[in-house]
Amino acid sequence: MGSNQSEAYRSFEEMPLWQQAHALAVRIHQITEPFPPHERYGLTSQFRRSAVSIAANIAEAFGRYHYRDKLTFYYNSRGSACETKSHLLYARDVGYTEPHLFDELAQELDTILHDLNKIIASIRNRLTERASR
User: What is the pLDDT of residue 7?
Assistant: First the structure.
C-alpha cells in the first residue's frame, strides 16, 4: 500500500506528468481535426482515445492506494502512449501530419514514456524491497 511520486501532490492535476499527457491529448485532438472525413470513426477516433487514455490512466493511478494497483494503471498508460505513437507514425506515413509536427509530438511522447518508465521502475523497486523484508 502507499503511494509513489504522487505523494507530493494533492491532486493528479498537479502532477507534471499528467499535465504533459493532458496537453498532448489536446494537441492530438487539434491535429486530427483536419484528417479526412472517412477517418472520423477510424484513425481519428482511435488516435484521440489512445491519447486521452494516457492522462486518464495516470489520474486513475493517482487515485489508487496500493502500489500494485498504481502499477497496473501506469502500465496501461504506457501501453496507451505506445499506441498513440503508432497512430502518430501512421499519420505521418500517409501524409496526415507535417514532419515538424510529427517530430514535436514524437518527442513529447518519448518524454512521457521515459517518465512513466521511471515511475514504474520506482514502484517495482518498492514492491521488491517490501517483498524482501
Answer: 61
pLDDT for 69: 96
Structure-block grid coordinates of residue 46: 482511435
The cell for 111 is 518524454
pLDDT score of 1: 38
Q: What is the enclosing helix (H) or strand (E) of 125?
A: helix 99-131
Alpha-carbon span 74 to 56, nearest angstrom:
10
CATH architecture observed for domain 10-131? Up-down Bundle (1.20)
Q: Give the whole-angstrom CA distance, residue 95 versus residue 104.
A: 16
Are 47 and 28 in contact, with CB atoms under 8 Å apart? Answer: yes
Q: How high is the pLDDT of residue 8?
A: 83
* Among 39, 56, 59, CA closest to 47: 39
Q: How many CB atoms lie within 10 A of CB 55?
A: 24
Beta carbons of 106 and 50 less than 8 angstroms apart: no
| Region of residue 3 (phi > 0: left; psi between -120 and 50: alpha; otherwise: beta) | beta
User: 3-class SS at 11?
Assistant: coil
